[in-house]
Amino acid sequence: MVFHQKHNSVTPYNINIFTYKNNKFLPHFHKDFELIYVIKGSIEVFIDGKHFDLNKGDFCLVFSGQTHAIEQSNNSIMWVCVFSDMFVPLFAEFMQNKTAENVFKCDTDFEKYFYENFIQKNSIDATNLITYINQNDEIKSPALSSDKLISYSGYLNLICSKFLESVTFYKCEKSNFDLYKKITEYIYENFKKDITLDSLADYLGYEKHYVSRYFNKWFNTNFKQFINEYRVGYAEELLKRHDLYVTEVAYKAGFGSVRSFNRVFKSIMDKTPSQIIE
Predict the structure, then answer these.
(1) What predicted TM-score, i.e. pTM, was given to this entire model?
(2) What structural domains and CATH numbers belong to the chain?
(3) Which of 51, 62, 116, 193 sits most deeply, having the most CB atoms within 10 A of its CB?
């Protein structure tokens, strides 16, 4: 069974940073990038059917839509940062229709700099993870101040540039995730509009019922629910970070009316938009 992590697929400027000890992650995928760094010991990473052994000091970058699983050895410690492409827009654009080996190393001086200035200063011990889980059992990315957004963007673009220097690129082979990527790209670019399963099927050039079955299988939900969750995630960020009225946020997030926005928001968040502002 492959799981789709919705919380790492739908929120603009999403970022989750944790350290893990002696853990195991079942096969899953999400839209956001995932950066892994081995602090201590060794881990095994499985990405789209490939097996990688990582040791202390190794980095691994998982691309959007790649199915991956992780197994840590005894007493190992790894740092994981999941971040949306909005932090690294030029890198994300460059990586379209390309792929590369996921594992890479950095020179000793840079590794030390990145570890001391970003990894050590931005990490939550996953043993305390329960305090960061919302009522839907999903990790909630914290609202970030402008200076944090700039800082995170700077460090993430820096490590992505080191990745570009370290690997060889090749064109993506056709896979089951081509359709997944087209779907997520379409939603990302059009969720503020009045999109439907019919419009998605027309865009993809597939029969509606096939797209519906594919969507339910790979996203573990139906199209309407996914769009609502995507819009609500976007709306929540607007409510937290901008001095906007609820009415403005409703239409900016793609809802046709304030009434429907309030109803859908409450059903997903168990809070009203006004309570988020408070």
Answers:
(1) 0.69
(2) 3-171 (2.60.120.280), 177-277 (1.10.10.60)
(3) 62
